[in-house]
Predict the 3D structure of the following.
Amino acid sequence: MLTTRDAAALLARLGDGAPLSTLLPILGFTESVRVGGREIRRLGLPSAPAMVRLAARGSLRALVCEWDDGPVERDAVVRAARQLAREGSALHWVMLARWRSGRAATICAPAIGESSATASLHVDLTQPRASDAETVAALAADLSGPDVAVHLRWREALGREALGRRFYKNLVRAIDRLAEEAEGRVNRPNRRPGET
């Protein structure tokens, strides 16, 4: 089983230049093949990746794309993953993408035939957070059972991260609104840092 510490070390290796396909074994994929440009162009990515690999296990598929340079295109990768899910309706996809110049990676897993929300994780490989390592460890935690169950667990792990970020952003906004609308005096030790 991949521990959070092991996952953090793996993310650090990716940040140091290890190929993104290094993640494939922890997802249960043992082999991958290079994919040609024509096959990848139909996904509508903004630029051609320098390297594309495809891995398969049962109905599970992993598409790994790496760009040497260019801007981080997280939204384009999520759209491409949705396109894969629409076209390969009997397959369960996970897409891994990395931009070496921006040192960022995205992992996403669309539902079969999905055209809206896609569970995803975006990692800043220059400073991966503990929650990023926890999510990667969760992706590798249980690869047993039917492929549809494995894919669902991947989506849950990736979705939990997105929900957490959204929840905390909304919580901070709500607390700020409450603080702005509050009336009365507050003792100096209870004020926010920097307030007078």
Notes: The mean pLDDT is 85. The longest helix spans residues 147-181. Residues 47 and 70 are 8 Å apart (CA to CA). Helices lie at 4-15, 37-41, 74-87, 130-141, 147-181.
